[in-house]
């Protein structure tokens, strides 16, 4: 009975969701590192603001998707599954952004610290995370 009440405690529940989402965020950042042609953290360390904005948008987007997933699902596994599905949609949106701008390469512009492109990338990630999150049911 004591162990059962421990696992149903809201603080334990929150700590569990937090831990899982942080782990999923780390995995998603590693995957974004693979998807982009530049090295996110090396560029940020050098002061590349465009990369910082694009990366910040991705972090916000992933966390926002998981926020919706936590709100809509009762089990940890459902939350992880829908959150990862949302993350995949966010990656597809990034590729779509690259595809829909044939006059320049998004990754190259962001790597060269084109802050306008970095800002648009941030807005796309954040904006679409709300759409993706709202569609999770």
List the SSEs and their pairings.
Blueprint: H1 2-7, H2 10-35, H3 40-45, H4 49-72, H5 76-99, H6 106-111, H7 115-135
Helix pairs in contact: 2-4, 2-5, 4-5, 4-7, 5-7
Can you offer a commentary on this structure?
- This protein has 137 residues and is mainly α.
- Helices cover 82% and strands 0% of the residues.
- It has helices at residues 2-7, 10-35, 40-45, 49-72, 76-99, 106-111, 115-135.
- α4 runs antiparallel to α5 and α5 packs antiparallel against α7.
List keywords for this structure.
137 residues; mainly alpha
Q: Estimate percent helicity.
A: over 70%
* Rough outline: elongated
- Largest sheet properties: none
Helix/strand/pairing category = mainly alpha
Distance between the termini: 33 Å
State Rg.
17 Å
- Quick one: how many beta strands? 0
Chain-averaged pLDDT: 90
Count of DSSP H/I helices: 7
Residue share in β-strands: under 5%
Low-confidence stretches: none
Helix and strand sequence: HHHHHHH
Summary of the model, kept short:
This protein is mostly helical. 82% of the residues lie in helices and 0% in strands.
């Amino acid at each position: 009975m004591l162990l059962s009440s421990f696992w149903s405690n809201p603080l334990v529940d929150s700590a569990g969701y937090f831990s899982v989402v942080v782990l999923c965020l780390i995995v998603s950042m590693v995957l974004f590192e693979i998807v982009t042609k530049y090295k996110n953290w090396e560029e940020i360390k050098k002061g590349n603001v465009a990369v910082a904005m694009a990366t910040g948008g991705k972090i916000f987007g992933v966390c926002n998707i998981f926020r919706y997933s936590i709100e809509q699902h009762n089990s940890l596994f459902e939350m992880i599954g829908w959150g990862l599905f949302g993350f995949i949609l966010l990656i597809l949106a990034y590729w779509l952004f690259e595809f829909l701008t044939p006059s320049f390469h998004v990754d190259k512009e962001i790597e060269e610290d084109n802050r306008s492109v970095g800002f648009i990338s941030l807005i796309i990630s954040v904006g679409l995370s709300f759409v993706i999150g709202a569609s999770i049911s």
